[in-house]
Known about the structure:
The chain is built from 6 helices and 6 strands. It is of the alpha/beta class and 185 residues long.
Amino acid sequence: MRNSITTTILIRHAESLPSSDLSEPDWPLSKRGLKQAMALVEELAKYKIDRIFSSPYPRAAETVQPLAEAIGCAVEIRDDLRERKLCDGIRGDWKQLLERSWRDFGFALPGCESGFECRRRVRACLEEIVRVNAGRTIAVASHGNAIGLFLNSIDPGFGYEQWAGMKNPHVYVVAWLDGNPQAPA
C-alpha cells in the first residue's frame, strides 16, 4: 500500500422523517430527503466512485441507493457505520446531551455510547474499508455524530460547532495516504 491514495466520500444522510411510531434507527428519508438523495447522484458523479458502503439505518442506505443504481453497484452495509446511541428514545434535551458529549468524550448515559467509543468504532470500520479498497474511491453513508466524531479524530478542531453546521445531506472528502486519513481541506 506504499504511496497509495484512497479517497472516501463521507456522506451524512439526507433529511430523515422522525416518527414516534418507529425507533430512531428505523427512521426513513422524508420526501425532501428522497429528492436530496437523487440530487447527490449528479453532485458525486465527478468522483468515479468504485464502491458504496452504508450504515444499516434506512435513512443512510436510502441516501446512497440512487447513486448505487446510477453507477451499477450494490450498497454494502456495515453495522459499525451506524449512528452513535446518545440516549434511549426521543428526548427533548438531546441537543444539550450532545453538546455535553462533545465537551466530554467520555460522557455516556447508562446503556449508551460515549464519544470515544463511537469515534473508535467508526474509525476502525473506515480503516478496514480503506485497507481492503486501497487506491480506490469509495462513498460512505453514515450519520452526523458518527462522521463528526471521526473527523474530530483526524482534526481536533472539528467540534460541536462544526457538527451543528452540518446539513442533510453533507459531503466530506477525506484522502487517505498509505492508510492514514488526512484532514479535509
